[in-house]
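Two proteins, back to back. First:
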Amino acid sequence: MQMEGEQRLHADNNDRHGQESSDFESVGSIAKVCLLAGKIILQSGGETSRVEDTMTRIAAAYGIADSHSYVTPTGILFAANGSAPATQLIRISERSVNLRKVSLVNDISRKISGGRLAAEEAYELLKEVDKQASTYSPRLQVLAAALASGSFVIVFQGGWQDFLPAFLAGGLGFMLVLALHKFVPVKFFAEFIAAAAIGVSAALMVQTGFGRQLDSIIIGSVMPLVPGLHITNAVRDLMAGHLVSGLSKGAEAFLTAFAIGAGIAVVLSFYS
């Protein structure tokens, strides 16, 4: 009888240990799904509140009602409480603007909330989204930036005779940004060089008579480089109470704007 009691107790302990191990693995897999979704959104230009809301909704859909996340522009900390708590951290080293990825992650999150995706399936779909390259080719991005530069000249009440000069200067500047980002890890340096190139090309076109209003050409050409999304996200994060993220994104946007302004100022100091 004593041996049977000891065997039964040993079996109960094994079952409890196996259940806790299985619970830990399931919570860990859910945490991975939440972190990957948050990483994609944050790297693709999403705001902090969207990242935290998406992670919380995914965790709740998989049965983890008590979850917490702490998001900054350089890292995400996620904790899932329960019988087997799991806490994981992921670093964010690169950030860009790809709102298509944000939309894809939102679609996957809605499917998870609707109970149509298991954790393993959702993780595989998110990995496919994460591996996707830029939506548009560099040539198409340069062409779009050039068209936007020429269009901004008209928006800012410039003349149609400056549309083509701004088209060329803006396309050149954006092409330099894409090229220098591949070789220079400090993106502010690339933006400074691109802004200086825009200033030089605009000044040369005005001097040769190809363009007329230097101010309109420069303003229109630098608009594709302006960090509008970062400024918007910084303001939204500050209004939502995310002070660390808001201040850091605001500082990043300020440094980018400063690099653009410094590049133009250097050229104009020689031109005038």
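And the second protein:
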Amino acid sequence: MIFNSFAFLAFLPIVFFVYWFIAKNNIKYQNIVLLVSSYVFYAFWDYRFLFLLVFSTLLDYFTGIKMHESKTVKAKKFWFWLSISVNLGFLGVFKYYNFFIDSFAELLLGFGLQSNFWTLSVILPVGISFYTFHGLSYVIDIYKDKIKPEKNFIDYSVFVSFFPLLVAGPIERATHLLPQIQNKRTFNYEKAVDGLRQILWGLFMKVVVADNCAAVVNRVFEYQDHFNATTLLIGAVFFAFQIYGDFSGYSNIALGTARLFGIELLRNFNFPYFSRDIAEFWRRWHISLSSWFRDYLYIPLGGSNRGLLIQIRNTIIIFVVSGFWHGANWTFIIWGALNALFILPLIIFKLNRKNTNIVAENSWFPSVKEFFQMGITFALTTVAWVFFRSATVKGALGYLHKLVDYKKYGYPEVDLKPFLFIVLLLIVEWFQRKETHGLVLSNCKKRYIRWAIYLAVFILIVLFGASSDSFIYFQF
């Protein structure tokens, strides 16, 4: 089930009604409602893979308890590594097995050796990377004695499979989400209304911005040899906003939906295209994943406390691993490595924490310096996005090669209508950049103006919303 579907439009009010009006304020019944609805939500995509979600939940639930009850360090390590190896094993088989086999076969072919390895013909279970990382953070935190295991199986299952975040995040922590699941929740009108605003803005980002950009992007990247450099440049820019509108739109809908049930999820995006350098961009883009790698990989490797060379090594590792997390393709690994390359000068010259405040914090408009900083940062991220979107490394290199050949430029050969939606998106988010999403409108005191804006966004969704049967990050 996807958020921009009629099925979800019917599903959400039913769950909301049962949750607040039948389960009422009984936390036990409310959690059962959330768990059942989450499994229905996931099974709607493909019920056959529901067993993976349930198995992963059972595994981490029991190993967490066993670790805590272990009398010896050896026993504790046994249960810890059992959970880690099985979780990563499932992820590796479904997501990376074919990649390693194909890469090894290509290596042998380079030496003139033919091979015929067995590969899997199975689709990737949606959301497997996200719910696996939920479980891993929980198990690691128990192993490090940061938290105690949750004994209530229903509560823990809701933590892993809460439907708004189940298939594309944000990646939650037990320390943040479990207490909300365990504690009594009462309906908060203001939070619920703001949740609806956030859902509306997320739908605009998804179906108006992202899906209209996608129609151009798919055509340009598929037939890149037939288009001039101007069109390829437009395709690259459109993809930058497609993936932002798609993923940030999903996150907005997820956070808004969770607020309808009295639950606050971790913020995943903070207007990243207003960043003034790459380091700031990665503090604002996919925040839950970036912080996950920081806490569970970067810091355990030594972080930035063991000298510059170790810091550089650790930075490269987390970006390459982040690329690999996104997909089993060399294009994702190069995308991660490029971002590491872009951020290294900031680390070397100790400028990576320079821009931690909001751009143009005390002004309506950015300074000339800030404007160019944002432009350069966006250009760098767009170059990296070309690898992210391309099917092959060769295709990405050919795409970029054409962009740097000034002789290849000419008149655009695609529909430019998505530019209007992108401009509207940027204008709204610029004036809302101090808020949590694009439709907070805290500075707008006139109710009729706010409602006029909500109505305008709704009309744009109805008139210009393009159809899409998925979100980009479902594949990760």
